[in-house]
Design goal:
Length: 230
């Protein structure tokens, strides 16, 4: 479905180890579209490298949804990674006023937007029915108030060996990196690094030698390398 909206593009691509492409798409500013399984907006897609739909997709051969749909109910997923610890796709999505969230999109599941959310509308009203509803999935982690997350990465290097398996999340609001410690697939703690020091952090990556790189989204933005915390 075409849209003239200039917001909520989502737009991350992740290639899984078995060479399937996961594509995140925002709701384009119209939350109801995220609940329509025949609309790409507000969904995660899974396709082959030639653009076709894998027969292992949850709705392949079904009339319940488009065959490329993997999951629905996402607001604006601007981050996506293949989590090498859980061996699954993880996404990072902007909430409204609060309710930024990390999810592990599973095949055929509905992640609730805009029926449930941990955020509120910008004018203060409750979103949907609240934070829970039967049949709708919960996030792995959420922020309230919002940090406006962008790209993220999972740390796998040796330079910061104590951080192995941790998530590193870039944030536009408060201009920081959020380090999230995982245990048994759950986030157990958060450390906020470099708040308001470099600018709006748009994306973050771990280099082949274990150094951390991040991009800032500013008029004079730059590419930065973290090789030590000293």
């Amino acid at each position: 479905m075409k849209s003239s909206s200039s917001v909520h593009f989502g737009s991350r691509i992740v290639i899984s180890p078995n060479r399937k492409l996961f594509i995140t798409i925002g709701d384009r500013g119209d939350g109801d579209r995220a609940q329509n399984p025949f609309d790409h907006a507000g969904s995660v897609l899974r396709i082959n490298t030639d653009g076709s739909s894998p027969s292992s997709n949850p709705f392949f051969g079904s009339k319940k949804a488009l065959p490329e749909i993997w999951s629905i109910g996402h607001r604006n997923p601007q981050g996506a990674i293949w989590n090498i610890v859980t061996e699954s796709l993880w996404t990072l999505s902007h909430g409204a006023q609060g309710g930024d969230e990390i999810t592990q999109p599973l095949a055929g599941k509905n992640y609730g937007w805009p029926i449930i959310s941990y955020g509120r509308h910008y004018w203060g009203a409750k979103i949907g029915v609240g934070t829970h509803k039967s049949g709708l999935q919960q996030p792995i982690y959420y922020w309230d108030p919002s940090i406006a997350p962008s790209g993220f990465a999972i740390y796998s290097g040796d330079v910061f060996s104590k951080w192995k398996g941790n998530l590193l999340v870039g944030a536009l609001k408060h201009e920081l990196i959020s380090r999230l410690e995982l245990k048994n697939g759950k986030i157990v703690s958060e450390e906020r690094l470099f708040p308001n020091r470099f600018g709006r952090i748009r994306d973050i990556r771990v280099g082949s030698k274990g150094h951390i790189y991040f991009l800032t989204d500013e008029t004079d933005g730059g590419l930065y390398k973290i090789s030590s915390l000293d």
